Amino acid sequence: MAHIKVPEGLPGITGLLAFRPETAEPMRALSEFLLRGPNSLSSAEREIIATYTSSQNGCYFCQMGHGAAAAHHLGGNLELIDQVKQDFQSAPISNKLKALLAIAGQVQKSGKHVTSEDIERARQAGATDLEIHDTVLIAAAFCMYNRYVDGLGTSAPRDPELYLAMGKRLAEQGYVNSGISTSVEAAD
Amino acid sequence: MAHIDLPTGLAGPRGPMTLRPETAGPLSELAEVLLRGPSTLTKAERELIGTYVSSENDCRYCQTIHGAVAAHYLGGDEELVRSVKRDFLRSEVSAKLKALLTIAGKVQQSGKSVTAEDVERARDQGATDLEIHDTVLIAANFCMMNRYVDGLAAWTPDDPDFYRERAAKLAEQGYIGSVAR
Is ipTM over 0.95? Predict the structure, then answer.
């Protein structure tokens, strides 16, 4: 049971977004741009950064939902997502994404953990300043979302099918317009 | 020096936010609702929560600017802000704010650290569900902004007067559009 009285039937962040529409709006807009806006990083890469950060924070709801969204962008490749969460250095992803995930992992611990060597390594793997900026902000944003979801003790269903459906909806319809986070009508 | 090429002369998140206006919009709107929107918590109380979390995250820019904004709302009481950062349980703030700061401190460590007892204690001191919600989200929001600023090694001025002047402007004009002025 959540620490506060949120609308029933809305797990994870969805109940909180319905509880407080004034803060939900900018939070949805932030996710939409960071994860689905025009970018030289693919939506799959950005969802992977979000999933990895959420996994490091131990946030079940976020890592399952965004992991499913990433997998949907990748034609359903959930195995890759599991590999990234377990050990991204040995996962079959680009060197650039590995270097960006290393930065995201530092941000998850603390902003101060990011070193100029981390940045240099990402640049050598081809990352641009804007890609580094977006990686830091995606990781930072998920340090917010994860704390929001877990700090209020929201429920996280264990049925993997639910997350696959959520991931598909997020990947296809996004964070602003998908039923998932707009209102109590999302309870299905 | 910042980790990436940022516009010069802009302190804290203003550099990265100028680089990326698409995300600056929602970030500013979120700060505005949380810290200055209609609420049963005063603006000073909400800025103190932001300051305390930033202090726990050791983010010098954020704790100094938001501490200065809180002090501005409190008629210039910088000592109260310092006492909250040092040991809020012994500071001159209400029992309710102490209970909310305890929750914020847990959120800073991890969302999972918040217990039903922490929440119950805040309720016993009169905190509403909305106040508890906003406290958790303010703390979480600062865990984002602190990482944004320090993760990019954004410019952090040393001069305390810089923060006092900037704080007066933020307190008067708010966060929306603040990146450009």
Answer: yes
